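Example A, followed by Example B.
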Amino acid sequence: MNEFRRWKGEQLKEKKRSTLHSLTRLLLQLAGILAVLELLFVVWVMSGT
């Protein structure tokens, strides 16, 4: 029983870590997209004036 509980805990820890990892990756992707959009906006404003 104790072994099972320990194994379950390990599984949960692993799940948390992977969730955190995917969240971080998602945030990085969002940051990249925002940076590109900002760059495009700046170029658009520069060419507009």
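Example B, a separate protein, is given below in the same form.
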Amino acid sequence: MLWYRQSVFFRRLYAIRSGRFLRLRQRFSKLWGNPAGLLPGYGTGNEPASGFALSDLSGSLRLQQSIGFGEDKNLKIFRRRLTRFEARQLFSLEICGISCYNLLYLLYIIAISCFCMEKRGRFGMFAKERQDRILQLLNEKGAVKISELTGIFSVSVETIRRDLMELEHRNCLSRVHGGALRIPRSGEYPVRSERAGKNRERKEELAGYAARLIRENDIIMVDCGSTATEFSRMLADRFEKLTVITNSLDVFEMLRTKEKYELYLSSGFFMNRENAFYGPWALEFLERFHAGTAFLFPSAVSLQYGIMDYDRELFAVQKKMMELSDRVIFLADSEKFEKSGFLKLADAKEGCMVVTDSGLKDEIYGLYRENQIEIIRGE
């Protein structure tokens, strides 16, 4: 029974010597856009009756070169073995009426086909074209996910990972778990008066979501900044009694009319451009307290570089608030994401909580979630 199955298999292969293989070569030529005569024996009118001529190996090499890349290392080894096989004059051997040369050459063509499909993908796209398209998507969306790219290009996960590694090596992107992000660019640091009127609706939105994380009678520490001012306005509207510790004069002014609020404004050197206090006296003042939650307002958020800010004087105050609180919540509008700053407050890692507005792109939001970062986005 086994012999019968083998004989049926070889009889089917024998059809190569008829017009079936000519049709196969025509389809192969049409698929890859090769000119007539590039495939061995195709269109030349001098095809030997027994199959391919012994010079067909050079035609197969031209086939690979026409597709746009050199011969693969494994294919070179296979071709050399075919050449040695030819030199020993063993092509006269036949298996069930089919010459060994035809069988081996068929395997060689199949190997070339597989190599081409791996290089180009299902839609005939080279690695360079695919990488350029990945960068285009990255510029449009700010982030890309491996699972999405495999579906777009119809290639394996390993192929996409190699593309991302190559692009990262060229400093074109930043790889993260599950995908890639644009290289964080250094953001601008305008003065407080300029920031106050910028993205006000977004700041109000994220401040509203952050306020949901507070309960009546909570003890909180609040950083300084334009977003902190919007946040304190939201606190005044929603809560009757809170204990607030801050170094921001703007926050203090926003809450001082609330009779049931306990307000503590730090001492220290006064920074006019931020309307806030800093320095060793401010740090000494904060050490007298312990809060349930610290609300900080960084200038940049990045998966690669972490939670960052610019001001050296206020940096120490922010770190002290983080140290003296049970949990830390960072509030940043969507424009601050995937930018870098000067000083790192914390790593963007598991357990980190960030609140932002609805303007954050889905791709960036998804990558933060995949990296186990607790991120709250407006709807």
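On Example B: The chain has three domains: 2-120, 127-180, 192-377.
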